[in-house]
């Protein structure tokens, strides 16, 4: 039989050599990967000033709830890795204790003599050992005597010595047998059914199911882990509407299939949504719930849109229902908005190549990027950036714009002297003021240097001729506003005008009519309509002033 030609490892030593080698090949890169993912990033090792406002406290509490899972996974991974290394060293030690089945033939060792010994020394040593181990002697050993005689012949006979030096054997080249590094019990008749069943289960059931499941999921997502159906949805709407406003971008973002139960198992559909969502939608204006475009009119899209509008309007949501749904929307939004920008960029490239007619405008990309900023800040784009700071609301902002000062940005607030800033925020307690300073110090200051040039241009004058391929080099340096607190020169952070000091007894006269924080959105739209009345009276005055000019022109013609 063909199977009789193979020899399997009866003792198991060869199999253990193979197992330890394969185990080491897998364990070394696995150790590098585990240590890399379990290493804490540098930004987590640094001590960061924290904010003690209620939203930040709640956010840190939620993060701490997730930390045990990540810490547990980290500790379990390190423990499993340590156990694997211990098993590897134990296996390597036991493997080193196995008796060698093949030993190199050494006649010098058999004669118990050094390798540099002469022929006379070899003969003298042979006579001494033969007298000791000869079978006729009381101390004789026939097998030992035969090995000594063969070793003596290998060192004294020229032909035997040549065979030993060339082939390692004084008798000449011999047959070498090699076996398969598998234990014999694996191919024995008693275990054949079990082994065959294990192979069939592993390679005919588990492997096809695993590969099929992975393939079915992978074909639904792009390389950025965005659903391909969502990407096609973006292409359709951005091609349909080349110039898209911010609220339209929000509407398309809410229509992403990542928020639909059939495409994402993380989405929760509760009976309480039928009660809570209509109440929330009544507090939101310009929601666009009357839109009839699919899938923008589907329930999942309207729900996600209402949650996004509530987030930007900073409305309170039920903690265990809509608030958890909003967390999922906010978790997916940065990646979806990035996919939007990518789709618009590809449509522009296709339009430049003549493959499509409707080229998206630059405003569309800007509105997509602005949407990302709005989602991170939790503010509409027409709101003051100062509302990002804790403990500040619309009532506080009316003190920031008066006849004596005009503080409209966080950078301007950071550039003020500490006593002036404390006087401006005198309605805050000491802890609240410290929270404002801590958050303010973490805001970035970006210094950007833009240099357009032509690569490999022999003319160093910086001139750009027609038809040249221009390369724009942008150098960005990021710093924090905390570096500029209490600095005397404001010019270093943006050439800001000097701000006068603020005293608690100063009377504050706000500019414009700021809206209180609790007002509804539709009430703000009504006030915009009232401001349009004086603008209609201005064009009526112009023809009255122009009448005498028309008369003078007629008199000159006559």
TrEMBL record:
Keywords in alphabetical order: Membrane, Protein transport, Transmembrane, Transmembrane helix, Transport
CDD domains: DnaJ
One Gene Ontology MF term: protein transmembrane transporter activity
UniProt feature, compositional bias: Basic residues: 523-551
SUPFAM superfamilies registered for this protein in UniProt: Chaperone J-domain, Sec63 N-terminal domain-like
Cited PROSITE patterns: DNAJ_2
InterPro entries to which the protein is assigned, alphabetical: DnaJ_domain (IPR001623), J_dom_sf (IPR036869), Sec63-dom (IPR004179)
Membrane topology: Multi-pass membrane protein
Gene Ontology process terms (BP): post-translational protein targeting to endoplasmic reticulum membrane; SRP-dependent cotranslational protein targeting to membrane
Transmembrane segments: 15-35, 73-93, 193-216
Start and end residues of each J domain: 106-168
Subcellular location: Endomembrane system
Region described as Disordered: spans on this chain: 495-558
PANTHER family found in the cross-reference section: SEC63 DOMAIN-CONTAINING (PTHR24075), TRANSLOCATION PROTEIN SEC63 HOMOLOG (PTHR24075:SF0)
Protein name (database record): Secretory subunit
Organism annotation: Desmophyllum pertusum
Top-level taxonomy: Eukaryota, Metazoa, Cnidaria, Anthozoa, Hexacorallia
Encoding gene per record: SEC63
């Amino acid at each position: 039989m063909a199977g009789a030609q193979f020899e399997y490892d009866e003792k198991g030593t060869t199999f253990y050599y193979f197992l330890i080698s394969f185990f080491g090949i897998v364990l070394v890169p696995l150790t590098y990967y585990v240590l890399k993912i379990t290493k804490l990033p540098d930004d987590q090792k640094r001590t960061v000033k924290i904010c003690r406002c209620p939203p930040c406290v709640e956010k840190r509490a939620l993060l701490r709830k997730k930390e045990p899972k990540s810490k547990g996974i980290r500790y379990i991974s390190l423990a499993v890795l340590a156990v694997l290394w211990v098993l590897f060293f134990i296996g390597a030690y036991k493997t080193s204790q196995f008796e060698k089945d093949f030993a190199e033939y050494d006649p010098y060792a058999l004669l118990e003599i050094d390798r540099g010994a002469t022929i006379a020394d070899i003969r003298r040593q042979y006579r001494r050992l033969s007298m000791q181990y000869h079978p006729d002697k009381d101390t004789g050993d026939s097998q030992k005597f035969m090995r000594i005689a063969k070793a003596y012949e290998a060192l004294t006979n020229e032909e035997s010595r040549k065979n030993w030096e060339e082939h390692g054997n004084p008798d000449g080249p011999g047959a070498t047998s090699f076996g398969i590094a598998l234990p014999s019990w694996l191919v024995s008749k008693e275990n054949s059914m079990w082994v065959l069943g294990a192979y069939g289960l592993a390679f005919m059931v588990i492997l096809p199911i695993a590969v099929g499941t992975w393939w079915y999921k992978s074909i639904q997502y792009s390389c950025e882990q965005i659903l391909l159906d969502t990407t096609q949805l973006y292409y359709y709407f951005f091609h349909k509407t080349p110039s898209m406003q911010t609220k339209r971008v929000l509407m398309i973002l809410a229509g992403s299939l990542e928020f639909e139960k059939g495409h994402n198992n993380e989405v929760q559909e509760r009976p309480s949504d039928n009660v809570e969502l209509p109440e929330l939608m009544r507090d939101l204006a310009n929601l666009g719930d009357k839109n009839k475009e699919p899938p923008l009119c589907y329930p999942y899209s309207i729900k996600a849109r209402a949650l996004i509008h509530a987030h930007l309007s900073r409305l309170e949501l039920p903690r265990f229902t809509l608030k958890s749904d909003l967390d999922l929307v906010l978790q997916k939004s940065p990646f979806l908005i990035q996919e939007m920008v990518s789709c618009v960029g590809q449509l522009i490239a296709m339009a430049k190549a003549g493959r499509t007619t409707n080229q998206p405008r630059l405003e569309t990309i800007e509105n997509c990027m602005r949407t990302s900023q709005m989602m991170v800040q939790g503010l509409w784009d027409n709101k003051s950036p100062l509302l990002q700071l804790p403990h500040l609301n619309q009532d506080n902002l009316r003190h920031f714009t008066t006849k004596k000062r005009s503080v409209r940005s966080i950078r301007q607030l950071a550039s003020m002297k500490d006593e002036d800033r404390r006087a401006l925020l005198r309605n805050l307690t000491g802890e609240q003021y410290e929270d404002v300073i801590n958050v303010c110090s973490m805001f970035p200051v970006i210094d950007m240097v833009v240099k357009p040039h032509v690569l490999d241009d022999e003319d160093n004058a910086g001139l750009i001729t027609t038809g040249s391929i221009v390369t724009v080099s942008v150098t960005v340096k990021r710093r924090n506003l905390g570096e500029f607190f209490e600095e005397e020169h404001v010019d270093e952070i943006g050439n800001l005008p000097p701000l006068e000091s603020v005293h608690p007894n100063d009377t504050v006269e706000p500019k414009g009519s700021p809206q209180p924080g609790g007002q509804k959105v539709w009430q703000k739209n009504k006030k915009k309509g009232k401001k349009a009345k004086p603008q209609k009276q201005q064009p009526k005055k112009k023809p009255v002033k122009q009448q005498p000019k028309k008369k003078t022109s007629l008199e000159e013609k006559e």
